[in-house]
Amino acid sequence: MKESYFLGIDIGSTTSKCILLNSQREIIGSSLVSAGTGTTGPQKAYEDILEKANLTAGDISFTVATGYGRIMFTEANDEMSELSCHAKGVHHIFPDVHTIIDIGGQDAKVISINDAGKVINFVMNDKCAAGTGRFLDVMATILQININDLEIHAREAVRPAKISSTCTVFAESEVISQLSSGENVNNIVAGICESVAGRVASLAKRVGIKEEICMSGGVAKNGGVRDAMSKSLGAKLQYSPKAQYMGALGAALFAYDKLNI
Amino acid sequence: MTKVNELLEQFHKVAVSPEEQLKSYLSQGRKVVACVPVYTPEELIHSMNLVPFGAWGAEIEVREAKKYFPAFICSILQTTLEMGITGKYDGISAIVIPSLCDSLKCLGENWKYGVPNIPFIPMTYPQNRNNDNGRAFTKAGYLRVIDDLEKITGKKFSEAELAKSNKVYNLHNQAMRRLSDVLVEYPWISASQRNDIFKSAYYMTKEEHTTLVNQLMDLLLEMPKETSNMKKIITTGIIADSRDLLTIIGENDMQIVGDDIAHESRQYRTDVNESKDALEGLADKFSRMDNCSVLYDVDKKRGDYIAEMAKRTGADGVVVVMTKFCDPEEFDYPIMKKKFDAAGIPSVLIEVDMQMNNYEQARTALQTFKDMLN
Hints:
The structure holds 2 protein chains of 2 kinds.
Chain A: E1 5-11, E2 16-21, E3 27-33, H1 41-52, E4 60-66, E5 78-79, H2 82-93, E6 99-103, E7 108-113, E8 119-124, H3 133-143, H4 150-155, H5 168-180, H6 185-207, E9 213-216, H7 223-233, E10 237-239, H8 246-260
Helix pairs in contact in A: 2-8, 3-5, 3-6, 6-7
Chain B: H1 2-16, H2 18-27, E1 32-35, H3 42-47, E2 51-54, H4 75-85, E3 94-98, H5 102-114, E4 120-123, H6 132-153, H7 159-184, H8 191-200, H9 206-221, E5 231-237, H10 243-251, E6 254-261, H11 278-288, H12 302-313, E7 317-323, H13 327-342, E8 347-352, H14 360-373
Parallel strand pairs in B: 1-2, 1-3, 3-4, 5-6, 5-7, 7-8
Helix pairs in contact in B: 1-8, 1-9, 4-5, 6-11, 7-9, 12-13
């Protein structure tokens, strides 16, 4: 009997991620391209995962797209919101998680799920880059630090600097002022991480925190933000190295459900 | 069916092109008075043979109004002022602006300087409205409006004419309340079409609008009622007339089965007691209005009111359409949310303003909400 394959693609504002499942719901492939909606990134991520799995589009039984660019992705059979997909993906990996904090390239979301993994409440940030991956990008550029090194600098900090959590533009000015007054870069980076965490933690408190808590999305890769978030919430966080793929995983699981439930 | 569609199209045309309605009234030699939200005593204006004309802003870019308003103020008022400054209301005899929130008070003062060619008439309401002093205060406010209208338009006020107008408005209220219930049985009428019917009421005389609404209901009731698998929702907020938002509601298979929108059903909940003297009756009507963010309520009953509406209509959930920077609505929200949660009614908050050109976040939130309800 021919094997069935199920694909989830999460097209965000800055990255495109794919997850491929087999008929046993096992992850058999993943791809990530650092280009999101409105670019060639989604197509590249899609072609990449097929090529790596030695499959063609015709071999895929069902594809679900999610993320900001989900509507425009014509190869998908269906599309679902990224909140539902993150909930599905995280619940699959961490069945005891009840609160998901998903910080992506340009927005942040907090999702409350029940024991069955169903979304029961959620909140999204407003249209502001503060508290998102974009905020970290801007700050890393000002500090001339590789975004992936923010975590190392944050963990070296002695006394995190105070950075506004309200507005990226104001925060940018604050960082420049801190630099010109001679503040240590590690302290500034830790302050930036606390700023992101503080803003999103306040969103999380609006939904109501129920443990266990998990961080997903690209910003979850940053240990500095994870540490600051854990401190802000006063709770330990679950984290998967595949945090950035949780939306794509959820989409792939929904694709599986479409033909198997 | 053809006639129903014709009526729906008629409501749509009026709702999307109020400027044509304004031109039409002015060309007939009618004098028109703009009525700013949330509650302006339209009955008074109507009784003086003037045309009350809704001024709830529009989806336009704000440029000139920024000279008078800070950025953090609701877009309904910013765009209303913008329309005044840019001549969209030219030909209108006066504008009545009530005092029901701090931003409205600012609009009145800014209007005097920004739009000097259209006189501003303030309508000052009391906070504590439901007692003898409150009713006397409201009546005094109405007398001030009457006095200004007489001076500006040359028209004369009479209690007898107001009594007639109170009856016209009561009949319209009753028709609109009934409409909301009738539409539940016809889910193929979209959220946008429902809004067209409510919105057009602001740009037509109430006699005209009542006639059309009753015609529509009569035609609908001759048709078989329909059931659907759409998710039933209650909407709440100040205004929910964005075409994009309403389209997204439809795309997500949601049907509005009731609303607590100030621009829609909140206007029609309370009738004038026609057994009272006309002006006393109008003040008494305001004193009995309730469950609204701009009407002082120490008990904060609005959440219970909506929860009860959800139960009565069999709604699956509540969509809170939050007008950005509307303090009264933002103050009400956490209290309402607790009530919805306690009643086991799922809810979602969608933030809107009249200068949004991207509704993708709202789309994601509503799509997720639909998943929650499934």
